[in-house]
Write a structure and sequence with these properties.
Length: 436
Amino acid sequence: MFGYYFRLGVRSLRRNPALTALMVLTLAVGVAASVSTLTILHMMSSDPIPQKSTRLFVPLIDPGPVKGYTPGERPEDIQITYQDAMNMLKSGQGVRRTALYGVEASVEPPRREIAPFNMGGLAPTRDFFAMFDVPFDYGQPWTEADEARAADVVVLSRAMADKLFGDVNPVGRRLNLMGFPFTVVGVTAKWKMLPRVYLLQGGSPYVTGEEFFIPLPTAIRHETQHRGGMSCSSNVGPGFAARLASDCTWITAWFETASSGDRGDLQSWLDSYAAEQRKLGRLTRNAPNQLFDALGWMEYTHVVGKDSQLQTWLSFGFLALCLVNTIGLLLAKFSVRATEIGVRRALGASRTEIFRQFLIETAVVGLVGGVLGLLLAFGALALIRMSSDSMAAVAHMDWEMLGLTFVISVGAAILAGLLPTWRACQVTPAIQLKSQ
């Protein structure tokens, strides 16, 4: 019976091509607007590392002074001090630990046809690559011995390695970085984490990846300036050593635990550590020590802004407006078929069968509108990708959103068709037959 009603619906739509086209276009525009904005919100708020996001934790300790502090207020920065980061690396907590900050370095390409340029990268410790599942095309991360002696070694992204050395394995070759000869020890495969949850300072969280990695101790030895924000509650003396000893926050630390259930133990250690530091005269605010998993960290740092959420709600409001127009068109369409409904009712069709027939007809409108809406959504996302690099990284539709497009379209059409279909079921056969 479904197939029969489906064919009736298609024939009915063909009888009124102009009205059908107007309904399909109205629905398609609403679906395209809502799906394109929902796709961007979906990509922005997606779990960047779902296989272990509940086992990765970032600590937050407030080292600011008591003066001007109101208990319970949000910390001024989302990073920690260098000395706290180093203590956490030495703590032995979790199965892996890393501390990192964004860096920028000048590079002298070995290929003479390329002029020197600056590239952006990261200065983490070795565990970073295993913690965030960074794949490698060539080589591997630097060794523990390299990290311990702050060796001049570098890991390049695949795109940067191809630019500097061509399509060859560059492991073992030298590269002048920051005026010093660095040895290439590895090349990462094409890898990007969206959003870039491991470092939410120094640019958009939706950049396509780091161009190079150097060991954190190496960056400190070369006094490499950070790329990103830094917050200081008091004046810092001159020199890089003064920054390291200060309470300026400019480092991000991460822990990886064996299971999500180890969070309580890690929180207990963090509280104990803060208590010990207070005995040394630090952390005088006595603010709560916070620990966030990956998704919690995204929420706390407002990775997805309220403006993006508002745009999504507005797009669904536009879809609702399109549905109101579709309801009006369906009412007009079904009203002129009152005679047909009266004849079917007189021949024995029940109200349930009439309801089912017209509801399937509206579903056909939704299906066609979904196909057109999907094409319009792809076009809208293509235009959005042209607006900025950040948007280019997130304005992509995955299979989940592809299926949701048809669910929204057909569901919206059925919702719009409920009132017209119910009105069609109320047709009295005797009155319609008598008027003919």
